[in-house]
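$ run holo --ligand "zinc ion" --emit tokens
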Amino acid sequence: MYISLRIFRCRLLSYSLNNIMAVRQSSDMAQFKAVLKSAKQVVILSGAGISAESGIPTFRGAGGYWRKYQAASLATPGAFKTSPSLVWEFYHYRREAAAKAVPNAGHIAIADFENKHGSEKNVTVITQNVDGLHARAGTKNLIELHGNLYKTRCTKCKEVLVNTDSPICEALANRGAPDANVVGSDIPVKDLPHCKKSGCNGLLRPHIVWFGESLEPAILSNAEAVMSTCDVCLVVGTSSVVYPAAMFAPQAAARGAIVAEFNLEPTPATPDFHYYFQGTCGTTLPEALAD
Ligand code: BJW
Ligand code: ZN
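-- output --
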């Protein structure tokens, strides 16, 4: 309720600002680069679109299916309760796919920007992605809002561990094929990944924030803190429909930060922003972030 009210207030504020003094939108790259050059605190907020050019499907749109399931419908506590086997197959498939993927020009441009300007600017990447590609590209100041494919959490003792095993357990070897004709999943729960802590043996789950679950409070407050002080924000490859991340950049724009969006297509938040650069972010970001 509290979050919904905040979102409503934020939308109302940004709607009012847009109507009082209509944010004039530009696609002038040279002008944006000049703004970025003088920025002191820069946030890059990324979503699935930045990993699309590494071959990782986005959530919404044509690629957002695994078998006959919409990816977002498997990313719920209810789906895991109903069929932990099916959900583990989905995550096993994505762990294996992300491990084979390599960071693309967009991830690398961001990491190079931090590396080059990190001493004169405060540069933070806030990502909704769980694939680990920002870190593999070399980004250091990174906030992973929705968790990470290579972390597990015990459903019993709640211990969180990094786990890069491939496969994560024997029963998942050769499972997870995305073929739409494969129906159901029948791995017995006892054969799915389990906690190795002495005396626990709880079922492990991916350490990922599913729909209806709260983000980790410390991670959320870190993200909110940098969003509330940045002077420039780049919103990259996200549909800006999933909260709370969807309200970060419109809120920053409403308090006066300069926000630039990089996306293949406009999103519901596009009218809130000062700059919009249409295209693949593997092309637009290297241009925006180069000296
Ligand atoms: C390119 C490109 C290229 C392609 N170059 N661009 C207020 C109102 C209504 C609902 C809610 C609300 N507050 C909370 C909710 C509920 C819910 C929510 O937001 N629902 C909405 C769908 C309405 N949020 C939550 O449940 C969150 N929890 C929470 O707020 O707790 C408190 C609470 C709960 C309930 C009620 C009230 C309060 C948790 C959200 C967790 C999100 N989890 C997922 C799954 C992670 C697991 C996994 O990866 O397996 O995170 S959902 C999925 O969406 C994933 C993504 O991180 C997230 C965002 O998607 P993203 O990154 O934007 O991807 P796409 O596919 O949507 O967009 C890709 C974009 O890229 C497109 O725009 C393309 O055009 C573009 N693109 N190629 C540039 N080459
Ligand atoms: Zn445990």
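-- notes --
Residues 1-21 have pLDDT under 50 and may be disordered.
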